[in-house]
């Protein structure tokens, strides 16, 4: 259980370290969009691939790329 606790601690550290940068560059709306991306179904896809060795449909990766592209387009234009 210690590797999971360590991974959680490292993840929370990096997430909380990047929050001020995201807020300064893009504003609170980008932070909300980033959180929705982090909690998206892509985590389920990654768990299916690496933990259960299942094959997923290619459209999942296209959807993830579309979400990531939308975040980049949204943050590219200054407010």
Automatic annotation (TrEMBL):
Protein name: Uncharacterized protein
Membrane association type: Multi-pass membrane protein
Principal cellular location given in the protein's record: membrane
UniProt similarity note: Belongs to the SLC35F solute transporter family.
MF-aspect GO terms: transmembrane transporter activity
Signal peptide location: none
One Pfam family per UniProt: SLC35F
Organism domain of life: Eukaryota
InterPro entries the UniProt entry points to: SLC35_F1/F2/F6, SLC35F_Transporter
């Amino acid at each position: 259980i210690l590797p999971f606790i360590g991974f959680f601690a490292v993840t929370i550290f990096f997430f909380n370290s990047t929050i001020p940068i995201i807020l300064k560059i893009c504003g609170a709306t980008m932070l909300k969009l980033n959180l929705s991306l982090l909690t998206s179904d892509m985590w389920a896809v990654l768990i299916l691939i690496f933990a259960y060795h299942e094959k997923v449909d290619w459209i999942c990766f296209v959807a993830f790329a579309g979400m990531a592209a939308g975040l980049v387009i949204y943050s590219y234009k200054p407010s």
